[in-house]
Amino acid sequence: MIGGLVRVLDNVFGRGEAAVTVPPLDGALRPNRALDEATRRLPLAEVDSVVVAADRLLASAGKEIHVLEGGAWRPFRGYEAEVACLSPVGDGGVAVALATGDIIIEGGRLDGRRYRAADCHCVTAMAVSGSDLFVANGSATNRAADWQLDLLRRNASGSIWRIDCESGRSTQVAGGLGYPAGLVADGGGLVYAEAWKHRLVRMTASDPGKPKILYADIPGYPGRLAASRDGHWLAVFAPRSQIVEFVLREPAYNSRMVAEVPRPYWIAPKLRSGRSFYEPLQGGGVKHLGVLKPWAPTLSAGLCVGLDGNFQPRVSLHSRADGATHGVTAIAEHDGHLFAAARGDGVVVAVPLDRLSADA
After folding, report:
1. I want to staple 103 with a disulfide (CB 3.0 to 4.6 A). Which of 2, 115, 326, 327 is the partner?
2. What single string gives the DSSP state of each residue in 64-95?
3. Cβ neighbours of 263 (radius 10 Å)
4. Around Cβ 90, how many Cβ atoms within 10 Å?
């Protein structure tokens, strides 16, 4: 009852979950052009996930996995369905999740094994800890391709599952989540990115019912997490904006927009925006004499955040409104470089890690 009263007061005063404010990009998140100024740009249409396995950089795109060889992408494996995400398995293998919910192990001791976590059809991320494979299911009602609809419906049906790699048995360890889009296992338990609640959360095996918020009110929608040499990397696949926050709090308008407006023109975050004049935010406040302003409000951008050992931001790499590296969905460190997959622009960029250390 108290919770319901708090929500009513929040709606009246425009505070709490009813607020339409968005945190500024400041401090460690101060805007820059590091992603667009990357030393190497490796085009790969529909690129989504990048991981390192057996000292090779692998990337998923559509129904295929590609491997980086000689400075270019080469097809490595093909599948019957779209690859949803990848995760390295400790002994040099890689776990491949398909859009159907099936998980296949390629290479290593478990080569050829197949798994499935209950009725998961929206696998967004995976992480391995010992003999357990953890799987994030973003939504119970929408597939990964419908992530915008899941946000606009203010859904919170996501879950995290644990699969025993020896027996194949799956168990749900968390539910009722607002689109878990990133997972990483560390010494303190399991850390997941809850995209629709803009936060990173730690869950421990000893007390899974009491998650701890590590990083709250992120100014974007957090996605996949990856270990780094001195912490972790977080991919933020789209920025938050006041106009989207406002639409989320107007259910009548929201419902009519989804029913009557073509999806490319919804007021919703995107992996890439600005390619059609029919999109929202394409007027004079965004463009001047046909040129997009770099500081303009935008529905898409590129953002990688370097986190310290406590999952607090220490450095960031950006592609601003007028940039060409939008929709970062995955990050991996390999061969002295940071590789960031920007699905919105179909490219993987490489930034020297030494440069990041100097900038930090």
Report:
1. 115
2. EEEEEETTEEEEEEE-SS-EEEEEEETTTEEE
3. 12
4. 13
Cα first-last separation, the chain: 47
- Report the pLDDT value the prediction gives residue 34, as an integer from 0 to 100: 96
Residues of the chain with pLDDT under 70: 1-19, 206, 284-285, 357-360
Half-sphere exposure at residue 139, Cβ-oriented, CA atoms within 13 angstroms: 20
As a whole number of angstroms, the distance between CA 135 and CA 199 comes to 18
Evaluate whether 51 touches 96 at the Cβ level (below 8 Å): no
Amino acid at 203: M
Buried b (16+ CB within 10 A) or exposed e, 24-59: ebeeebebbbbbbebeeebebeebbbbbbbeebbbb
Residue in 277, 274, 213, 289 with CA at minimum distance from that of residue 239: 274
Residue type at 224?
R
Q: Which residues pair with 174 in a beta bridge?
A: 160
Q: Is the pTM of this model over 0.70?
A: yes
